[in-house]
User: What shape does this take?
Amino acid sequence: MQNHWSSSFPQNFDVNESSLYQIPNINNFDQFVFLANKFRNLFRNNFSYNTPFSYEESYSFLSALNKDTSRIWYAISYKEKWIGHFGVKYLGDKNILLDNALRFSPKGGKPLFTDIKNALISHIRLHLPDYNILIVIKKSNTLSLNFHADVDFKNYSEISLYNKLELDPTHFSIMILEKLI
Assistant: This one.
């Protein structure tokens, strides 16, 4: 019997001087939700939704992540302070989306999120080599475009995935790193 795709991801791991812990199994969960909600609302114009989230909505969503078999999100701490989150989402058909990278604080240095992204890509390549890795970028979000510039993502033109994710291809790009085998 084949393991579920998510079983290859550890409960926690370190990148540089930062530690990543699977949400919701983290200490100071309330503090993390407060920060996540605050910054998700500040940067909501970079996502496909525009309506602000209440604290209660964020708490409910983040506390249910362990029941969502399509997602794994990591809370990121630096010197025991929450500085952001990053995750992956399984889209089906052996496609994994790098999901919701959001930084709450500049602590940990500028390249930290790039290092985390690269660690997740390396992990997927090592443990799930026959999976594609995808990203979704709002075309006007130059920070996100620059963030992913160091990886050779290609435009993904399969319109059915845009429809599945409810994305307008005039405003968003889905990009792909194709599987190795």
